[in-house]
């Protein structure tokens, strides 16, 4: 298949996964972000990269957003939310973060293929995204893509959709948000 054929196939896969995301679960996450004081985002590897893109846009919304592990990230407190993106829901560093966040009384949200995973079960809000785990141990969801690519792409689209929903709720537009964009690039 030509590279452009693969692009079309990936988009078809994303159409299928997008249509399976629960609107109620997504709305719970948006409302939790609205109600939280600070928003912390975490994920490992590629899932973490999608989280960084999400945290940047949350900052553009005018909220206090942080990526876990960065040098200027402050302490998590009980009025805050920790959002974890993890296909498997079993990544060890994220399990520890979820445990710590729970012990501090903060809200934990998981975006995962497996709400029944360790991270999913520990979370106050779990949004299920369809996909195949990176080790392909669960072959119930078919994708032509390697490892967790389909989950990671769906995660980025989902995060961008959360931003749009937040903008809609708060009457924000791109122009206002651009006013907060980095100007030392
Ligand atoms: O980087 C990743 C890998 O390339 C899978 O496609 C994963 O995002 C990373 O290993 C984290 O895994 P999950 O927590 O299961 O998303």
From TrEMBL:
Domain of life: Bacteria
GO MF annotations in UniProt: carbohydrate derivative binding; isomerase activity
Domain SIS, chain residue ranges per copy: 29-172
GO biological process: carbohydrate derivative metabolic process
CDD domains: SIS_PHI (cd05005)
Family, per entry: Belongs to the SIS family. PHI subfamily.
Protein's recorded name: 6-phospho-3-hexuloisomerase
Gene behind the chain: hxlB
């Amino acid at each position: 298949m030509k590279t452009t054929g693969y692009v079309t196939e990936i988009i078809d896969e994303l159409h299928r996964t997008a249509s399976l995301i629960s609107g109620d679960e997504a709305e719970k996450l948006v409302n939790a972000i609205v109600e939280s004081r600070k928003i912390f985002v975490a994920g490992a590897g590629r899932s973490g990269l999608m989280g960084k893109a999400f945290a940047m846009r949350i900052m553009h919304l005018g909220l206090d957003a942080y990526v876990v592990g960065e040098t200027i990230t402050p302490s998590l407190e009980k009025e805050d939310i920790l959002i974890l993106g993890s296909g498997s829901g079993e990544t060890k560093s994220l399990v520890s973060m979820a445990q710590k966040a729970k012990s501090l009384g903060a809200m934990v949200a998981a975006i995962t293929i497996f709400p029944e995973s360790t991270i999913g079960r520990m979370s106050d809000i779990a949004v299920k995204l369809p996909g195949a785990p990176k080790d392909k141990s669960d072959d119930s969801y078919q994708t032509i893509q390697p490892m967790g690519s389909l989950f990671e792409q769906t995660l980025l689209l989902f995060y961008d959709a959360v931003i749009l929903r937040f903008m809609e709720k708060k009457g924000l537009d791109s122009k206002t948000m651009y006013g907060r964009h980095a100007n030392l690039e």
